[in-house]
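explain this.
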Amino acid sequence: MKVLAVSEDRRNLEDIRTVASGIDLITELVCHEGVLTGMTSLPTKGDVDVLMLDCRHGSIAPLADVERLGDFYPNLHTILIVDQESPELLLRALRLGVREVLKSPLVAEEVGAAFRRILQKSVAQPKGEGHVLAFMSCKGGSGASFLATNLGYVLAERTGKRVLLIDLNLQFGDAVLYVSDRRPSISLIDVVRDIRHVDMSLIKSAAVDILPNFGVISAPEDPTVSVDIRPSHIESLVRFARANFDYVLLDVGRSLDTCTIQALDLADQVYPVLQLTLPFLRDAKRLFDVFRSLDYGTTKIRPILNRVERSPGDLTEEDADRLLSYKVYATLPNHYKSVTASVNQGVPILRLDAGSPVASGLLDLVAKITGQDVRGGGRGIFSRLFARS
């Protein structure tokens, strides 16, 4: 790939040149000292595959110029190099299609991983056989973690498919507690620290088994160690899981950062979870604007309305469709008693109270996702085991 590196700082350019010299994917590197204010000193159209834009040491990211360059270079991929990931900067960059943000100091391994991701997206490598489904809260308290974990249980129990849930809510994830009362001995951070040697034995040792065919890899117990988890780790783990499981569920929490975006990019479908209230719809609209800027189409984004109660004067599903510009994919009813009991006991709601409206709604949702009839016990792993005996 042909690379253009731009920085106002000559030392930073030399730093980029040194790191780039060890990356085989870079066939040509052009360094430009200055700012992106004019095209006359830059390579001609079609001569650049990747722009490495240095924003360290107080430099301001010239995102308006990045947008202008996108018109001049139709297939340009941009890598921002920053001192710290500012949420405001990240959101602006995402809206311009920037997927790669690297923090200082530059590490050759991370830069190389970013170029490999760019190459993989450029050549559109085929995916593994498994389906990757990401669940994201539009606002705190949406019930996304409850939904993701219990959906994973229903998928495994009623279809017999191999299901793995990865808790990517890196700061305060507690997905495993929704379906188990066991504390995991190791977590996601232990997996990514050995990501070069990831195999099924590592996955099995990390996952808390809820069923023989359903496990959960928990988020780090200590939120401070989450800074060690990189987008390249997420990519390697999700690609491996896709190749070895029928369904990979990602509970990505609510924050937008480089790891979250990597997970959403890899997902076949994204299920934003919200409730039918104005605060939820307002936050959901902001999130969906980001989805549109990331070129996530209507087939990828599948909004789920949770805790729905139908009373005169309440907002409706049609109101949500109109406000969000993405059609609501499914609704789940509110049933406080059964959900609270399930959460407090750490028992999947289908096991605890199969007759509850929420369990019924989950069965309908799984049927819609899989295209299978999963009511009446279906042909899950247990029914098939007993059928053999």
